[in-house]
From TrEMBL:
Keywords from the UniProt entry: Acyltransferase, Glutathione biosynthesis, Hydrolase, Signal, Transferase, Zymogen
Post-translational modification: Cleaved by autocatalysis into a large and a small subunit.
Gene3D superfamilies per record: 1.10.246.130, 3.60.20.40
Biased composition (Pro residues): 1-13, 480-492
Protein name (Swiss-Prot/TrEMBL): Glutathione hydrolase proenzyme
Pathway participation: Sulfur metabolism; glutathione metabolism
Oligomeric and partner information: This enzyme consists of two polypeptide chains, which are synthesized in precursor form from a single polypeptide.
Enzyme Commission number(s): 2.3.2.2, 3.4.19.13
Reaction catalyzed: glutathione + H2O = L-cysteinylglycine + L-glutamate; an S-substituted glutathione + H2O = an S-substituted L-cysteinylglycine + L-glutamate; an N-terminal (5-L-glutamyl)-[peptide] + an alpha-amino acid = 5-L-glutamyl amino acid + an N-terminal L-alpha-aminoacyl-[peptide]
Molecular function, one GO term: glutathione hydrolase activity
Similarity comment: Belongs to the gamma-glutamyltransferase family.
Residues covered by region (Disordered): 1-23, 42-65, 477-500
Extent of the signal sequence: 1-46
Length: 627
C-alpha cells in the first residue's frame, strides 16, 4: 500500500460509493494493477530518455480509432490506449488525465466536465454529467458583499474559495469507466504519471497562460511554488515537471475516488477552500469558501438523457441541463431547419445563423439552469413548434435589435408570436476550457469537454498535490432579480450545479456516428459548435474547412463579436443587414474557441481534426493512417 509521511492513506477502509470503484487493499493487488497498466503505455525502451514535444498535425485520416485534442502528449496517450486494446472511453479518460498535467490551467481533477458517448453495443448516445456542485451552505446572495449590498467584483470572486465547486472529474471518470470502459482508472493514470514525472516541453500557449496569471499566482503560496519555478514564468522550450501531481495520481490509482470524496485528499481540498494559502505579504483579498467535508461526500456524477434534435435528416445529440449547450445548439438548429441555407450565398446563411443564435440565447438566459433544482421546459425549448414560432421573427434582410426578449415555450404556438419581457443579461463564463474527441475500432465515440473555468481556475493549488481548484461557481448569477423581474434559474443554491455552455456533441446518420465535436470558449462554445455544424452540413465545407473557417459569436448582445478574418470577409454584407461587428476581445484577443472534431467518412474510416493555428493548434492522430 502507498505510504508517505506527508500523504498518508485514508483512515479506515473505504465504504464504497455509487459509481466509485474502491481500490484493492492488498499490496499484491496494487502490484498486479501496476503491471497490467504497462500494457497501456509505450515500452520503456521506446520512450525517449529526455522529454521531447511530440509533433502536431491538425488532420489525420485512417482506421482502428482516432483522437483529437489540443495537446500532443494527450493525443499520444489516447492513441497508445487504443493501440493496446482500450476503447474510446478508456482513451478519453487517459487523455483527460494527461491534459491535467500538460494543460493544468484548463483541465484538472480539481474541476469537472461533460461528456457525450455513443455506445456501439447498444446503439445509443449517453450523457455523463461531472459538473461541480455548490456547497450546502451556498445561498442566492452568497456572491453579494454583505458590507455593500453589491455583487462582488468578478475577479475577486474568481480568485477565492467562494468560487470553488465540489470537483466532479474523478467521480465522472469512475462512472464512465464503470458503465462503458474496458480498463480500470488505476491503469489509465499511468501515462499521465509518466508525463508528470518526466516532464513536458513548455510551448508558447503554456507560457502565455502562465504569464496571464503571474500576478495572482504570486499571491498564492503553493501556486507560486509550482507554476513559477525560481520565481519566473517557465520559458518556451524548457521542461516542466510536476512530481506532486504524479504522487497524487499514484495515490488515486491505489485508493480510487473515495480518497478524494471521503478521505485525506478531500479534507485537504476543503482546508484549501476554507483557508486559502495566501502568500505572506500579499495584499490581495482572497475570500474563504463555504465547502465542508460533507459536500464532497454528497457528490454524485450522473448519467443523463442527452438532448436530441433532428437536423437535415441527421440526429444531433448534446448535453442536457445543467449545461445549456445541448438545448441552445438544438433550439438554434431547429430554427435554422425552417430556412434554406444555400452554400452559394454564405452571407445570407451567416445572417440566419446569427439571428437564430440571438433568439436561442434569449431563451437560454430565461429558462436554463440545473434541472434537478429548477423547472426547465426542455421538451418545449427543443420542440419544432416553438422553433417555428421563433423563426417567424427572423427577417432575411434585417438584424433584430439585441438583446431580444425570450419566447414562451408553453406548448401553444401560433404564427409569428411576438416575444415579450426583458432579456436576461449574459452571465460571465471563462473561455478557458478544453475538449477532446475519440473513436475506437468497435465504433464507440466519446466527445468530452472538461474545465476548471478561468485560465488557472481559482488560482488555489492544493498544497503538495500539484493541481489547481476550479472557480466554476462564478458561472452562477451573482445577485437575485429585482422586484417584478423574471425568475433567474441560475442563481446559486445548496448542492446546485451552475449553468454551463459546454456542448460535447455527437451526430448520427441512420443510427451510426457521423460527427463528434466540441470546443472550449465559455459562452461562445455554443455558437462555435453551431457554426461548425452549419459550415459542414449546410455550406459545403469538409470538416477541416468547417473547423478552420473564421468565426463569429452572437449571444443576444448588441454587437456580434468576431475574428478579424470573419469581419474582413463578411463584414460589409452583414453590416448592411444591421449587424454591428466588433473584434472578439478574448482572451486570447481575436480568437474564438479551439475546437476538436472527428467524422466517420465510411465504416471503419475516420478523420480526426484539430485546430491548425488557434491557441497554438491541436493534435490529431489515428491508429492506422490511410495511404
Amino acid at each position: 500500500m502507498f505510504r508517505s509521511p506527508s500523504h498518508p492513506p485514508p483512515s479506515g477502509p473505504p465504504r464504497g460509493r455509487r459509481f466509485r470503484r474502491t481500490a484493492p487493499a492488498a499490496a499484491v493487488a496494487v502490484a498486479a494493477a501496476l503491471a497490467a497498466s504497462a500494457a497501456l503505455t509505450v515500452p520503456a525502451s521506446a520512450r525517449p530518455r529526455h522529454p521531447s514535444e511530440p509533433g502536431k498535425r491538425p488532420v489525420a485520416t485512417g482506421y482502428g480509432g482516432a483522437v483529437s485534442t489540443v495537446d500532443p502528449y494527450a493525443s499520444r496517450t489516447a492513441l497508445d490506449v487504443l493501440k493496446h486494446g482500450g476503447n474510446a472511453m478508456d482513451a478519453a479518460v487517459a487523455a483527460a488525465a494527461t491534459l491535467g498535467v500538460t494543460e493544468p490551467y484548463v483541465a484538472a481533477i480539481g474541476g469537472g466536465g461533460f461528456m457525450t458517448y455513443y455506445d456501439a453495443r447498444s446503439g445509443r448516445v449517453h450523457a455523463i454529467d461531472g459538473r461541480e456542485i455548490a456547497p450546502r451552505r451556498m445561498r442566492e446572495d452568497s456572491f453579494v458583499d454583505p458590507e455593500t449590498g453589491e455583487p462582488l467584483p468578478f475577479g475577486e470572486a474568481v480568485t477565492s474559495g467562494l468560487g470553488v465547486g465540489v470537483p466532479g472529474t474523478v467521480a465522472q471518470w469512475e462512472l464512465a469507466l464503470d458503465r462503458f470502459g474496458k480498463r480500470k482508472l488505476r491503469h489509465l493514470l499511468r501515462p499521465a504519471i509518466e508525463v508528470a514525472e518526466e516532464g513536458f516541453v513548455v510551448d508558447r500557449e503554456f507560457h502565455d497562460q502562465t504569464a496571464v496569471n503571474e500576478e495572482r499566482f504570486r499571491d498564492i503560496a503553493p501556486t507560486r511554488e509550482l507554476f513559477l519555478p525560481d520565481g519566473k514564468v517557465p520559458a518556451v522550450g524548457s521542461v516542466f515537471r510536476n512530481p506532486d501531481l504524479a504522487d497524487t495520481y499514484r495515490a488515486l490509482a491505489r485508493y480510487g475516488g473515495d480518497w478524494l470524496y471521503e478521505g485525506r485528499l478531500g479534507r485537504e481540498i476543503v482546508r484549501t477552500v476554507a483557508d486559502p494559502p495566501v502568500a505572506p505579504g500579499a495584499a490581495r483579498t482572497v475570500r474563504p469558501g463555504l465547502m465542508r467535508p460533507g459536500d464532497l461526500d454528497a457528490y454524485r456524477a450522473k448519467l443523463r438523457k442527452p438532448t436530441h434534435v433532428s437536423y437535415r435528416g441527421l440526429d444531433v445529440y448534446g448535453m442536457p441541463p445543467p449545461s445549456s449547450g445541448g438545448s441552445t445548439v438544438g433550439e438554434a438548429l431547429n430554427i435554422l431547419e425552417e430556412f434554406d441555407l444555400a452554400e452559394d450565398r454564405p452571407a445570407d446563411a451567416l445572417h440566419l445563423y446569427l439571428e437564430a443564435s440571438k433568439l436561442a440565447y434569449a431563451d437560454r438566459g430565461r429558462y436554463l439552469g440545473d434541472a434537478d433544482k429548477v423547472d426547465v421546459p426542455l421538451g418545449e425549448l427543443l420542440s419544432q413548434g416553438f422553433a417555428g414560432e421563433r423563426a417567424c421573427l427572423i427577417k432575411p434582410d434585417e438584424a433584430a435589435a439585441a438583446p431580444v426578449p425570450p419566447g414562451s415555450p408553453d406548448g401553444r404556438y401560433g404564427p409569428c408570436e411576438p416575444a415579450r419581457g426583458a432579456a436576461a443579461p449574459l452571465t460571465r463564463e471563462g473561455p478557458q476550457t478544453t475538449h477532446l474527441v475519440v473513436s475506437d475500432r468497435w465504433g464507440n465515440v466519446a466527445s468530452y469537454t472538461l474545465s476548471i473555468e478561468q485560465f488557472g481556475g481559482s488560482g488555489l493549488t492544493v498544497p503538495g498535490r500539484g493541481f489547481l481548484l476550479n472557480n466554476q461557481l462564478t458561472d452562477f448569477s451573482f445577485e437575485p432579480p429585482g422586484p417584478g423581474e423574471a425568475p433567474d434559474p441560475n442563481l446559486p443554491g445548496p448542492h446546485k450545479r451552475p449553468r454551463s455552455s459546454m456542448a460535447p456533441t455527437i451526430v448520427l446518420e441512420d443510427g451510426r456516428p457521423r460527427l463528434a465535436l466540441g470546443t472550449p470558449g465559455g459562452s461562445t462554445i455554443i455558437t462555435t459548435v453551431l457554426q461548425i455544424l452549419v459550415n459542414r452540413l449546410d455550406l459545403g465545407m469538409d470538416l477541416p474547412e468547417a473547423l478552420n473557417a473564421p468565426r463569429a459569436t452572437q449571444r443576444n448582445t448588441p454587437q456580434v463579436f468576431a475574428e478579424q478574418e470573419f469581419i474582413d470577409r463578411y463584414g460589409d454584407e452583414l453590416r448592411a443587414r444591421g449587424h454591428e461587428l466588433e473584434l472578439f476581445a478574448g482572451p486570447p484577443r481575436g480568437v474564438i474557441g479551439a475546437a476538436n472534431a472527428l467524422e466517420i467518412l465510411r465504416p471503419g474510416l475516420v478523420q480526426a481534426v484539430a485546430e491548425p493555428e488557434r491557441r497554438g493548434g491541436g493534435s490529431a492522430l489515428v491508429v492506422r493512417p490511410a495511404r
